[in-house]
């Protein structure tokens, strides 16, 4: 018999996934009560946490923004403060902000098979202890650890006498004017930081062990300008067409890259070569060992990264650190760099569920030991969904596919008198299941998290999600019974 609960649904995290999920609950399941618990002082997730210069989206805002509140700025890539304002305005517009409890960190979460409820142990406002009970539990807390960045092994970094900063905890008072800055790392954060720091710094050097694909993206391209011109009579039509442009064109690009990797590689390399200064060779600095989208492709608005290289304020070095001394970085090649500031843009520590200690009937549950069902629910974890977005498209697209599927499941549960749904894999099925990565990236930070992330399977309902159009059809019409136990109230 299910016991009385405080809420039908508890969502963890008031970032892009949590706000979107709340909207879908209000839209599709209006009779369900819900709350969003977030440990931080404000909503926004990533866009509240990161404060480094130039922090911006690494995908277009027309699809990264909410489908129910179109992005109206005339730029496809936006900086963090603008995104944060958009999220706050969106939550307020729909009354979602009234359901958010900030400074509420969930320490433990236990599901009781007897009562069919989740019991959450919460620390509120730093010290107050609370118990919150719910029927359903939604993990919308993103995919990385907010408190602990990835600790890369950089020999001698502790001996450096200058300033060392990590983008995840950027010092608000850092003055880099006329300083020599070295950024260790080659991902999207480095590509964002370099042109922004170069506006004031004497020189900014990206030091990378291996190169990445860095592609320019127009803040507003010709097709978007044409759409705006032709749809002057209707903003909704304009927003719809531009959003569809950003759904279709990147989709075609990624499919092309997956199916014709050599042709895609050549296309990307020609685009990169055309923007490099004549004195900077493409090989080795811009000749990745992998094909496009095997790791995340970095995008820079209006080519600001390449503009910084051409100006001479930005530079790039490819090599391995031998050691760092009090005032230098020595490379294995014998070359030395002499920075005033070192920025360790070495990646994120991946984490599912915000570090909550999860258990079922007081038995600890390890996410990394289990498979994920349809990219949405975790094997043997009742009444729980987890939001994991795409790595080759906007995160929000995957988050919305998850939200719509879960709302469909919740409505079916109500219709059929079901109080518990839990993905199950038979022993024989599990023994024969080939494991696949849930995030299909070869990046170092993803490889290091292989025991943290759930596993995808190679067949059936356990395959990793694929792409937005297919996943939306699965959310609306797909099989939600196979591989799942539906338990009715006794």
TrEMBL record:
Pfam families the UniProt entry points to: FMO-like, NAD_binding_8
The question of whether Oxidoreductase is a record keyword is answered with yes
- Gene3D superfamilies, A to Z: FAD/NAD(P)-binding domain (3.50.50.60)
Which protein is depicted? Answer: Monooxygenase
Cofactor names: FAD
Q: Which SUPFAM superfamilies match?
A: FAD/NAD(P)-binding domain
User: What InterPro entries does the annotation carry?
Assistant: FAD-binding_MO, FAD/NAD-bd_sf, Flavin_mOase-like
PANTHER family according to UniProt: MONOOXYGENASE, PUTATIVE (AFU_ORTHOLOGUE AFUA_8G02570)-RELATED
Question: What start-end ranges are recorded for coiled-coil regions in this protein?
Answer: none
User: Could you tell me the superkingdom of the organism this chain comes from?
Assistant: Eukaryota
Q: Which UniProt keywords are given for this protein, alphabetically ordered? A: FAD, Flavoprotein, Monooxygenase, NADP, Oxidoreductase
State the organism's lineage.
Eukaryota, Fungi, Dikarya, Ascomycota, Pezizomycotina
**Keyword Flavoprotein included in the entry's annotation:** yes
Annotated GO MF terms: flavin adenine dinucleotide binding; N,N-dimethylaniline monooxygenase activity; NADP binding
